Amino acid sequence: MGVPPSSHFIYIPVVLVLGTVVGFILGSRAARDAIVQEQKRAADRAARKAARATGAATGAAEEKSPPG
């Protein structure tokens, strides 16, 4: 078993650093997209809740009004 060529002492660390950088970039992009998506879901939930509250208040007011 021989000693690896000297190019491995440059090639392997470069590939590891490149992989780390690419992984960091892709991971941060995915995390940012997940945060934006969660904010949209929260806004949609709040809008649906407000619509239900408004609809319930409107429906309750109509039920209490005298027929006529």
Structure description:
With 68 residues, this protein is mainly alpha-helical. Helices cover 84% and strands 0% of the residues.
Sheet with the most strands, sense and barrel status: none
Relative strand content: under 5%
* Count of DSSP strands: 0
Intertermini distance: 100 Å
Helix coverage percent of residues? over 70%
Q: H/E series, N to C?
A: H
Summing up helix and strand content along with how strands pair, one would put the structural category as mainly alpha
Gross morphology is rod-shaped
C-alpha-based Rg, rounded: 29 Å
Helix run count: 1
**What is the residue-mean pLDDT, rounded to a whole number?**
87
Please mark out the parts with pLDDT under 50 across 5 or more consecutive residues, or reply none. none
List keywords for this structure.
rod-shaped; single chain; 68 residues; mainly alpha
Please outline the helices and strands.
Layout: H1 8-64
Brief summary:
This protein is mostly helical. 84% of the residues lie in helices and 0% in strands.
